Amino acid sequence: MITLNIPRPNRKQKRLFLARKKHIGYGGARGGGKSWAVRVKASLLAIQYPGIRICIVRKTYKELEENHVTQLRQMLLGIAKYNQSKKKFTFYNGSTITLQYCSKDKDTDNFQGVEYDIIFIDEATQLSEHQMKVITASCRGTNNFPKRIYYTCNPGGQGHGYIKRIFIDRNYNEGENPDDYEFIQALVDDNTALMEMQPEYKQQLEALPENLRKAWLYGDWNIFEGQFFEDFVDDPKHYLDRQWTHVIEPFEIPKYWKIYRSYDFGYSKPFSCAWWAVDQDGVFYRILEYYGCTKEPNTGIKLTANEQFAKIKEIEKTHRWLKDKNIHGIADPAIWEGSKGESINDIALKYQIYFTPGDNARIPGWQQIHYRFQFDENGYPMMYIFNTCKAFIRTIPLLLYSETKPEDVDTDMEDHVADETRYMCMSRPLKAKIPTVDNNKYGGFDPLNQRQRYKNYR
Q1: Would you list the DSSP string of 371-393?
Q2: What are the pLDDT digits (tens) for 159-193?
Q3: Same-domain status, 251 and 281
Q4: What is the pTM of this model?
Q5: Is residue 375 part of a domain?
Q6: Can you give the CATH number for the domain in which 119 is found?
Q7: 408 contact partners, CB below 8 Å, separation of at least 6
Q8: Of 136, 149, 404, 452, whose CB has the highest number of CB atoms within 10 Å?
Q9: Can you tell me the distance from the alpha carbon of 1 to that of 71, in angstroms, rounded to the nearest whole number?
Q10: Are 383 and 368 in contact (CB under 8 A)?
């Protein structure tokens, strides 16, 4: 009988090796020994089940080479042969481990018509929800082998929201069985081998700025590297007192407050329409929203402009906060484009829905949102979101920085709420405020003092 000569797994890795659910998440922080666990678990399964088909996926082939191919070739010497062109290990008993990468949606074509019994998605949050779902659809077959998908993951990346939803929040959509999911948190302290060989690694994590330290050392899924709006705070403990949070409980809107409507058109991608109340101090309250998205993120419900504006008009005629109000509309300037026929704005006018073109300057627009998110010395911001505005609360925290345009949002992400919010903020711009608390007092770069003040208050 052939066995692997490997170090003894730690307690969390043993849990992973023994897990039997269909979808198994593992990790949540840096240094948890995730890639090692993938290689060992895949190899053990290949030895245990003759003829089983296993796949290990990373975002790029370079990552596969650096994190798996070289190490597997050493570990499986004399046990499995590696075919470089097919990127496949074939074991003496007929089992196989295939290595695949998926850096863009087109790469999912490599999974069409292919069946695997076990799939490992290593660093899963680097892939999008769409990519993960296409890949995991290949986990099927009529044999008696176990059918499982393993996801190793850290907070952050384009798949952050999906992994957080199914493993951390345990919030499942129709067709997702909660009993199929299990998450095993592995922190750096669980990696006993690393702590023995390189104990200073934990000190390196402890020395990181606060947000990165929370994500990488403690596995905090509410904060992560590359998060564009890391100053957005959703704290249910303060929904009623409205301090140190942007999300609050709804309340009755005073009749004398002005009402605004912001709008971003979409058809195959979501459209976003929001209504804002503005008080006498210029504070924004997002009180209602109408968001055209399916249960699949960033997928539009394909309503025509006529259908969208008919619904918007109905809402404004019937909702107690909106009816009989003079509503000021701001929209994406693109809806005035009519060179090929009737423009989106022309259709809006038929329903007596009026807009002025929003200022589409992207970087100044994002800064205006940051200015409104900034808390004053008493913990009050210039923008609040009613907790019924689920699209804002879901999409804003997940936006990442663009990899090619510094200080801009990654436009491949679900940024439609952010865009119409930007138009709204640019319609009543604020001047930048000088922080009243020393940014460096508690360590780390925090230009708007959001986290430092929030930490001190709590």
Answers
A1: HHH---TTS--SEEEETT-HHHH
A2: 999 999 999 999 998 899 999 999 999 887 777 66
A3: yes
A4: 0.78
A5: yes
A6: 3.40.50.300
A7: 362, 363, 366, 401, 402
A8: 149
A9: 22
A10: no
